[in-house]
Amino acid sequence: SMYHTRRDASKVALAGLVDWLADADFSLLDVQFMTEHLRQFGAHEVDADEYDLLLGRATAPDAAFD
Prior knowledge:
Blueprint: H1 9-23, H2 36-39, H3 48-58
């Protein structure tokens, strides 16, 4: 986001990424740090046990990034 030249370009890029991932049936996007910026797009915190469960489902053998 620090390299864009237009206001809110990072928000547009994030929304596009989330849409693309949803269309490709991805179920998890790990953002590492919770911010209000991310929360406005639906990000939410999960505890370690829930994360392990979600990660296991997201990396099932049929998951593909192509």
